Amino acid sequence: MRIAPLVCLPLLFATAGCINTAASIVKAPFQVAGKAVDWTTTSQEEADRNYGRKMRKQEAREGRERKEAAKQCRKHPDDRRACDYSGYRAGY
C-alpha cells in the first residue's frame, strides 16, 4: 500500500507534460483561425483612418476643380456656364 503513492507520483509528473502538449495541439486551430479573422477584418480605427484619407483626397479634388472653374470664369466672364460651378462636391 505504501508503494502505490511512490509509483503514482512520478507517473503523475510524466503525464503533466503530455496534457500540456495535448492542450496546445487542441488550441492551435482556434488560435490560427483567430489570427486569420484579425487579418481579414478592418478595425474601427483603421476604417476611420481610411475614411479620413478618402475625404482629404475628395476635398483636394474639389479644390482643384473649383480653382480651375474660377480661372475659366475670369477668362470668360460673359459665359454663364463658365462661372456656374456644378462640379464635384466632396462627401457626395
TrEMBL record:
It comes from the Bacteria. The lineage of its organism: Bacteria, Pseudomonadati, Pseudomonadota, Alphaproteobacteria, Sphingomonadales. This is Lipoprotein. Keywords: Signal. Residues 1-16 form the signal peptide. PROSITE patterns: PROKAR_LIPOPROTEIN (PS51257). Residues 46-80 have a biased composition (Basic and acidic residues). Residues 43-80 are annotated as: Disordered.
